[in-house]
Amino acid sequence: MNKVLAIAGVVVKELYRRKDFYVLFVLTALITMLLGAVNFFNDPKIVRYLKEVCLLLIWVSTLVIAVVTAARQIPAEKENRTIFPLLAKPVTRWQVILGKFAGCWLAAGIALLLFYLFFAVISESRGGTAAAGAPVTAAASGPHDHDAHAEEAHSDDAGAAAPARRALLTYVEALWLHWMMLAVVIAMVLLGSLIFAMPASNATIQFIVIAGILLLGEHLNKVALRQVEPLQTILQVLYFAIPHLEWYDLRDFIIYDHPPVALWACALATLYAAVYALVFLLAAWLVFRRKGLTT
Amino acid sequence: MGDVIEIKNLRVEYPGRNRAEPARLAVNGLTLSVRAGEVFGFLGPNGAGKTTTMNVLLGFVNATGGDAYLFGVNVREPIARQRIGYLPELTYYYKFLTAEELLRFYARIFGLPRAETDRRIDSLLKLVELDAVRRRPIKTYSKGMQQRVGLAQALINNPELLILDEPTSGLDPLGRMKVREIIQRLKQEGKTVFFSSHELGEVETVCDRVAIISQGQLREEGRVSDLVAKYRCDLERVFLKVIGYEPQPAN
User: Which end of chain A is more exposed for a tag (fewer CB within 10 A), N or C?
Assistant: First the structure.
């Protein structure tokens, strides 16, 4: 385990010593801050739309960090020939793969945490998730309920703390599931980096696959039902075989202030991600295990 | 003393890049052994199979046939590399790390305790004269300095066997001298050194035994003094004779 952590540590150090990561982070932070600072006539729909844009930006940025970092790990080791002094030590190729995965996942997790913290601070400072929902409720209840609202406003502290706690739990769940999704993505990209010749081609293919799963994954079984055989079976098999990354997207829960996902569902999603990540890592090891490396 | 390196009938074949290209035989039935405590020179012209043999010993390439052992353990087992140090021909290190961080990383891979790691890093950086620049990223080092970092990383686990692939290649005379001094110092400490080199004068100075290979096959093996006596010439001429080079008469 110590060897895996040592390799992971080098991956994290490399990422945080590269300038491109900071460029992406500063750019995302700046856009989030700008969008968060703008107040469009106190219209909750526009505020929600801006939140949606900010969260989409965070999703794209973290995906770029995860895919680009994972795609170059093993090819860069080969290209810079740093793989040779490393493999000349008592380390197995499985430990190298696991270390690379752990490093990328940890680095993506740190980036994700920073992004979510930043978004939460900006969002809450502009009225918060609970507050974003409040005007809609007020508008729906009509102008005759002023007394009822006055009573609500003077209700006890425990009543006010509940939505905040709920919003916090939603944030934590969104962050956790997002991170779990990145585990699957990183494992998938690491496998791709051992199959495709160039990191750029691997990254491009992975982006297309990930975007395809996120946008079309949940509709694949419905599409399958309208097809003729054997396409129907192929699409159904594909539907059950692909990792459903779209299940990990809780952006709407944050934007529309939905109640948090049940904890058992979160645990199940975590298990699902762990199984897929492990399958991809095992496949990567099978490819890498017997690969000859010539100095 | 027992054999530290044992190579038995080793055969390595590289497949062709496409179906039309035939497989290339890099090593063909090589049998060799290196005893504990000796400095062993592994010689041969370019493309003879030296680096391929080293790649098999280090687990980078799998042998097509035959076996290779380090300290009696098959080279396919990662544990076989616990007691070895390896210095590649060129500097292949994480250039964004400092020399100290790089050594600490490799020490963790070997599972060295923290106190021992600190002690070894201090002594090795002093040995290779990089103590003053230990916190500078490796990318800012000169080629000679990078090669010395390489030597330090090869010694981080206090190895019993050192595998050096052309350790003085591309170094200035001072750098070569320093590497040679370190090899001699390791020899005095009773370490086994297995190295390939094209610098035959250097090989003659530091090696106890040499093996000369050509076209993947062992052509000659023995003590340097015995080979020089047998062929009645210096090691350079021995090498040329063994690989079958006929000098052209000058006009």
Answer: N
Distance from CA of A199 to the nearest CA of B (A): 18
Both tokens assigned to A212: 């395809």
Q: Which residues contact A163 (CB under 8 A, 6 or more apart)?
A: A129, A130, A257
Residues in B 154-183 with any Cβ partner in A closer than 8 A: 163, 165
Alpha helices in chain B (DSSP H): 50-57, 99-109, 114-127, 143-154, 173-188, 200-206, 224-231, 235-242
Query: Do the Cβ atoms of A292 and B82 come within 8 Å?
Result: no
Q: What is the band of A133 on the pLDDT scale with cuts at 50, 70, 90?
A: very low
Which pair of structure tokens corresponds to residue A255?
Answer: 């934007």
B59, B62, B97: residue with CB nearest A13: B97
**Nearest Cα residue to B41 out of B214, B165, B144, B219:** B165
Amino acid letter, A74:
I
DSSP track, B34-87: EETT-EEEEE--TTSSHHHHHHHHTTSS--SEEEEEETTEETTSGGGGTTEEEE
Residue B113: burial class (beta carbons within 10 Å; 0-12, 13-18, 19+): exposed
Please, which pLDDT band fits residue A36 given cuts at 50, 70 and 90? low
What residues of B are in contact with residue A6 (Cβ under 8 Å)? 105, 108-109
Closest Cα of chain A to B108: distance in Å? 6
Contact list in A for residue B93 (CB cut-off 8 A) is 82, 85
State the average pLDDT over residues A74-83: 87
For chain B, which residues score pLDDT lower than 50? Answer: none
Residues of B in contact with A88 (CB under 8 A): 58-60, 81, 84, 86, 163
Residues 78-117 of A with CB under 8 A from B: 80-92
- Identity at A198, one-letter amino acid code: M
Q: A16 to each of A13, A182, A288, how far by Cα in Å?
A: 5, 18, 27
Which residues sit opposite B165 in a β-bridge?
Answer: B196
Contact B4, B160 (CB under 8 A): yes
Strands B24-35 and B3-14: antiparallel
In sequence order, the β-bridge partners of residue B217 are B214
Structure tokens at B83: 């007691």
Q: Is the Cβ pair A89, B92 closer than 8 Å?
A: no
Q: Which two tokens stand for residue A227?
A: 């097809």
| A19 and B CB contact within 8 Å | no
- Residue B124 and residue A41: Cα distance in Å, rounded? 67
Under an 8 A CB cutoff, do B86 and A85 touch?
Answer: yes
Cα end-to-end span (Å), chain A:
28
Which of B52, B84, B87, B109 would best serve as a mutation to test chain A binding (most A beta carbons within 10 A)? Answer: B109
Q: Residues near B67 by Cβ (< 8 Å), separated by ≥ 6? A: B6, B7, B8, B9, B10, B74
State pTM to two decimals. 0.83
User: What does the pLDDT look like over B111-159, one tens digit per residue?
Assistant: 899 999 999 999 999 988 888 888 899 889 888 888 888 888 989 988 9
